[in-house]
Design goal:
The chain is an alpha+beta fold and 245 residues long. Helix content is 34%, strand content 23%.
């Protein structure tokens, strides 16, 4: 063969081991190495400091080149194809479109079904409310009046709720009328509060006392703010039994 003959394109020039390592290091840095070569190269990184340095050198060169590049958004069709290849989305028109509308997709049947469900829930709640509330407790009333009929106080007990209202008369200035619960068992009277000068006084029965037949409501005149001892300090000038209303 003449010395001027062109080189055979199918013949690869011989490379030194250093040149082969440099090419392999570049392929590793670019992520282009064949799987077998990449696996062997990764094993060499820990055992061959010189080869590991070659890979780092290529990574630094490529990093400098990447900093000089201007990011360009790929075309919409290219992004679509990448998502399709990754299995994140389906290609357009890859599924047959079903033109039939199911019953639950039609607005009127859907609204009717929703209204029926609401009505059913409301019916269940209405039927369950009496059971949830428990049995109705009776109401009791008492009308307390002074002996000269110049004052009148009405008391009402609904379950454990108590309401007391001044109907006639005036509470003396600097004094208060205190309401007492007197049980038929002879226990000490229990204070329910003070009669309001205007409007009703509302409270709940204290823990430990219950409505039983024979309970009476009484009034005593006390210093402003009520009895300082927890027991009536003045005479009980009005008393009446609680009767079922």
């Amino acid at each position: 063969m003449s010395e001027d003959a062109p080189p055979d394109p199918g013949h690869e020039p011989d490379l030194t081991p250093e040149q082969q390592d440099d090419i392999l290091a570049a392929e590793i840095a670019l992520g282009l190495a064949a799987p077998d070569d990449a696996q062997q190269a990764v094993a060499r990184l820990a055992a061959d400091p010189a080869f590991a340095q070659r890979v780092r050198d290529w990574q630094e060169r490529l990093a400098v080149l990447a900093e000089e590049l201007t990011p360009v958004m790929p075309p919409v069709r290219a992004r679509q194809r990448i998502r399709e290849d990754l299995g994140h989305i389906s290609a357009p028109l890859s599924h047959m479109i079903d033109s039939r509308i199911r019953w639950w997709q039609r607005p009127l049947p859907l609204l009717s079904a929703a209204a029926g469900a609401v009505a059913a829930v409301a019916l269940v709640v209405m039927l369950a409310l009496p059971a949830l509330r428990g049995p109705e407790l009776p109401s009791y009333q008492a009308a307390l009046a002074s002996s000269d009929a110049t004052m009148r106080v009405d008391a009402r007990v609904d379950g454990r709720e108590v309401e007391v209202m001044l109907m006639d008369g005036t509470v003396p200035e600097g004094r208060d009328w205190q309401v007492w619960w007197i049980s038929p068992d002879g226990s000490a009277p229990v204070s329910l509060g003070l009669v309001a000068r205007k409007g009703p006084m509302r409270t709940s029965l204290p823990e430990g006392i219950d409505m039983v037949e024979g309970v009476r409501i009484a009034l005593s005149e006390e210093p402003a703010g009520g009895s300082p001892t927890g027991q009536a300090t003045g005479p009980m000038f009005a008393m009446a039994p609680l009767r079922r209303s």
